[in-house]
Each structure stands twice: as C-alpha cells, then as structure tokens.
C-alpha cells in the first residue's frame, strides 16, 4: 500500500477537499438561481446544486468516518521525533515527520524502496489502554 502522509491525515485532507469542492459547486448553482441565466442556466444551476449537495454529504461522511477511525487508532510516541502520533493498521506514517511506523516485521522488506521518503521504524504497539477497565 502506498501513502505519503499518515492515514488519518490523508482521510481528513480528502474529506475536507471534497467538502470544499461540493460547497463551491453549490455556490455556483446558487449563483445560477440568483442571477437570471435563463431557462438553460437554471437547469444547469439545479444540476450543479444537486451534485454539490451529494458530494458535500459524501465528503462530510468521509470526514466523520476519519474522525471515528482516529479514535480507534493506536496512540504512540514516534521514535523519530518523539511526538505523540496515531497509527491506523499495522503500518502507518507519523503525522509529524512522516516516518513509516510498523508493527509488522514483514513490512521491513517491502519498505526498502521507501528509504528516500523516510525509513521504516519497527516498534511495539502501545497497549496502555488494555489495562483500563471498560
Ligand atoms: Zn515522528
């Protein structure tokens, strides 16, 4: 799997970008209603508004889903920059320095060609939360 940023950040970025795109389409659609563009203009405006609304709803879903995912992510201190980051799955990147963090020893071999962007750091997942009673 190829990813440049940490997964949580990536999902958030895409969710936000799509929300902005959807809002822009809705604004274009609204402009078509406000300014009289004739019959054809109104049809185009309505289409823009519908597309904008759908993409906004979908992207908001993605954004909230990213929020849900980040709560289930493993929190750990990055061994490279020492800051607290969140990790999704067995392999992810640090949110701050983009170092590849992995708990999967198999990943070391496939990560050889990733050294230009940062090297993989094997680590144990933080299991602090398992000691707390639910
Ligand atoms: Zn880091």
Q: Radius of gyration, rounded?
A: 21 Å
Mean residue pLDDT? 74
Series of H and E elements: HHEEEEHE
How many strand units? 5
Tell me roughly what share of residues is in helical segments.
Answer: 40-55%
Strand order of the largest sheet: 3-4-5
SS field, number of helical segments: 3
Description:
It contains 3 helices and 5 strands, in the order ααββββαβ. With 134 residues, the chain is of the alpha+beta class. It has 2 domains: 7-72; 76-122, no CATH class. The strands form 2 sheets. Strands 3-4-5 form a 3-stranded mixed sheet, with no helix packed on it. α1 packs antiparallel against α2 (38-72). The model is unreliable at 111-117 (pLDDT under 50). The structure holds zinc ion. Zinc ion is lined by residues 78, 80-81, 83, 85, 94, 96-97, 99. Residues 78, 80-81, 83, 85, 94, 96-97, 99 line the site of zinc ion.
Short description, anyone?
The chain crosses the membrane at residues 12-37, 43-66. The protein has 134 residues and is an alpha+beta fold.
Topology:
Layout: H1 7-34, H2 38-72, E1 74-77, E2 84-87, E3 91-93, E4 100-102, H3 107-110, E5 120-122
Parallel strand pairs: 4-5
Antiparallel strand pairs: 1-2, 3-4
Helix pairs in contact: 1-2
The structure holds zinc ion.
List keywords for this structure.
single chain; 134 residues; alpha+beta; 2 domains; three-stranded mixed sheet; two-stranded antiparallel ribbon; rod-shaped; binds zinc ion; flagellum; UPF0295; Flagellar basal body-associated protein FliL; cell projection; transmembrane helix
